[in-house]
Design brief:
There is one protein chain. Helix 6 runs parallel beside helix 7. Strands 15-14-13-16-19-21-20 form a 7-stranded mixed sheet, with helices on both faces. Strand 7 and strand 8 form a beta hairpin. It is globular. It has 388 residues and is of the alpha/beta class. The protein folds into 3 domains: 61 residues, Archaeosine Trna-guanine Transglycosylase, Chain: A, domain 4; 108 residues, Transcription Regulator spoIIAA (2-Layer Sandwich), CATH 3.30.750.80; 193 residues, Rossmann fold (3-Layer(aba) Sandwich). The structure holds S-adenosyl-L-homocysteine (SAH). S-adenosyl-L-homocysteine binds next to helix 7 and strand 14.
């Protein structure tokens, strides 16, 4: 099966860009088979597939003419496993990403490891249709993974989460990261209770960044940053999230680490409401962690990182002690590192405080990226020391 690309589309593929977009195809004709992508003269460019996703309509798999089959996937998985060599050596971290889509040579599929279980996330129906070969190849390379769940991340009537093969995982499934325990649930919707891309930031908190400090964790979800801070010696953590489920989830994360949740603060509240509440009560903190979703809507207001991050920073500055730290994080792919930094620093300038960028984080190495696909390198975390 062949599909012809436009001049522009061919150029992108030749330069290594892995994502095919609608406008790159000469004819808008999809296929559920592996395809040979050709240039305007019919010349071979790459092997790939077409599958409609949230972004794009297909992925390049290989720049040489070859069969896409079980042997191809086995090779991809072997290379991916080798890349994670040091995670396998490290007994203090048992949950990490095994296969990161285009960063590991095949866009449309992500596989995470939780102790001895896998979690497959499928981003388009075409690749999902090849599930049998892919899963068989995975089991060949990762025989120690005793069971796996799958998440459907494309429009479909399939359940969004279900057992894919093997043994069910216990609920919760306790995993380790930097020696800290996290309670995860592999079959509760699309999320598991922990975002594995923040392991290095949590690692910094565990290793002393929050030692002896009071920590405010905004958009706290299951409180992963709070637990890391508390385990790293924070005197008290305060977790704030709009979702009611965040209270039992956060309590559980403290409990599985032997911390009494009653010694910590957990609020179900809108972040912007909490800022007002804390100001009224004159509450101040040494460290504020800001890790909002890219977009969020509540009754009163729509929040987007691209538009409103500066407000979050300004409000956080108000809640800091005379000296303090802000950990500013975003996963918004539409905001460049430069824009993000600019937004943060403009807010500091507006607040007239002295600031110093002390430490930055991007994706950890298990979230392999493709240098030709910068939008895959989405995580930006900037730490600032502030003096008022
Ligand atoms: N920082 C978390 C992940 C955040 S996920 C971690 O490291 O694990 C985004 C969270 O923001 C969700 O739990 C969601 O409930 C919460 N959220 C969205 N809008 C919010 C708002 N306006 N105020 C407080 N929390 C909000």
């Amino acid at each position: 099966m062949k599909r012809q690309l436009t001049m522009q589309g061919s150029k992108k593929v030749r330069q290594g860009y892995p994502l095919i977009q609608q406008e790159d195809l000469v004819k808008a004709e999809m296929s559920t088979d592996w395809v040979e992508l050709t240039g305007p003269q019919g010349e071979f460019l790459a092997m790939g597939y077409l599958g409609k996703q949230n972004k794009g309509i297909g992925w390049v798999l290989s720049h040489t003419k070859q069969a896409i089959n079980e042997a191809f996937f086995i090779h991809l998985f072997q290379v991916a496993k080798e890349k994670r060599h040091h995670y396998y050596q490290d007994a203090t971290t048992t949950a990490f990403r095994l296969f990161n889509g285009e960063g590991d040579g095949m866009g449309g599929l992500i596989i995470d490891l939780y102790q001895d279980h896998g979690v497959f996330s499928w981003y388009n129906e075409t690749l999902y249709g090849k599930k049998k070969e892919i899963v068989t190849a995975f089991q060949t390379v990762f025989p120690e993974v005793v069971g796996a769940y799958e998440k459907i991340r494309f429009e479909s009537t399939l359940p969004e989460s279900q057992l894919l093969y093997g043994e069910e995982a216990s609920e919760p499934l306790l995993v380790k990261e930097n020696g800290i325990t996290f309670a995860t649930y592999l079959n509760e919707g699309l999320m598991t209770g922990i975002f594995l891309d923040q392991k290095e930031v949590r690692g910094a908190l565990v290793e002393g960044m929050a030692s002896g400090k009071t920590v405010l964790n905004m958009f706290s979800y299951t409180g992963a940053f709070s637990v890391a801070a508390a385990m790293g010696g924070a005197t008290k953590t305060t977790s704030v999230d709009l979702a009611k489920r965040s209270v039992p989830k956060t309590k559980e994360q403290f409990l599985v680490n032997g911390i009494d949740p009653e010694t910590q603060n957990i609020h179900v509240m809108d972040t912007f409401e909490y800022f007002k509440y804390a100001k009224r009560k004159n509450l101040t903190f040494d460290v504020v962690v800001l890790d909002p979703p890219s977009f969020a809507r509540n009754k009163k207001k729509t929040f987007s990182v691209a538009k409103n991050y500066g407000e979050l920073i300004e409000d956080s500055v108000d809640l800091l002690n005379e000296t303090g730290t802000i950990i500013a994080s975003t996963n918004a792919a539409n905001v460049s590192p430069k824009q993000f930094k600019q937004m943060i620093e403009s807010a500091f300038e507006a607040k007239n405080v002295t600031f110093k960028n002390s430490q930055n984080y991007t994706l950890p190495s298990d979230f392999a990226t493709n240098p030709a696909f910068p939008e895959g390198d989405y995580l930006k975390v900037y730490c600032y020391n502030i003096k008022k």
